[in-house]
Fold:
Amino acid sequence: MLKLENISKQYHSKVVLENINLEIESGEIVSLLGQSGSGKTTLLNIILGLTKMDNGRILFNDQDLTNVKMKDRGFNIVFQDYALFPHLTAYENIIYGLKNKRGSVSEAELQEYIDFLELKPHLQKKIGELSGGQKQRVALARTLVMKPKILLLDEPLSALDGVIKESIKERIKSIAKEFQLTTIIVTHDPEEALTLSDKILIIDQGNISQFGTPQEIIHHPKNEFVKEFILKQLQIKRQNIFQLFGEQYA
Ligand code: ADP
Structure:
């Protein structure tokens, strides 16, 4: 279990996160959902260990990670732009991080990840020869072979559209299930959060507006912000939500 206790952060005396408390169970997919500038990326980077918090504690399976460096936390992130090396092949990108971490993943496991993400036909291609969805799968494979204790994804669907977006969504769900991997996703899109996550943390200006399952948030929005923010977006995408959550939102 990942536990965040009273996490606060200011930049130049501007409060960006205020007393964030959160518990995430093993194998859960949790989205951090909010408008631009609400503090989602800052919270993701604090969990990763990239950004220092001002106050608070982070515990993972009862171990206090508050002062543990990023590289020693064992959490890995897929950045929004994938951050793949363009001069290397897909395969070279996937194994890149293993250079300094020999023995962490066996050859059989490596093949399992490649098969799972259906990357075999693309291994020898350069990054520029891959589609957006293929690049995202390479980025996921490169991260998974590091055997992260927690998978962090920053806007994983924002560069994708239509069918590809749906297929990556399903892929993320099956990774969390297959590998019992706790997954934390930053998104500004309520529909993505509602259809992808077990639980959603809605952040408004650095404060938790609501934390709950998609059903709880849809049927019992805790305050006006949640109602406005979620429902406005849902009205734009009526059809999908109608199928998912029933008539009253269509
Ligand atoms: P989100 O991911 O929800 O768009 P961020 O966490 O990136 O929001 O940013 C939250 C607030 O913190 C914004 O007002 C942003 O300008 C500010 N901020 C983020 N990173 C820095 C930084 N390194 N220095 C100063 N201000 C920052």
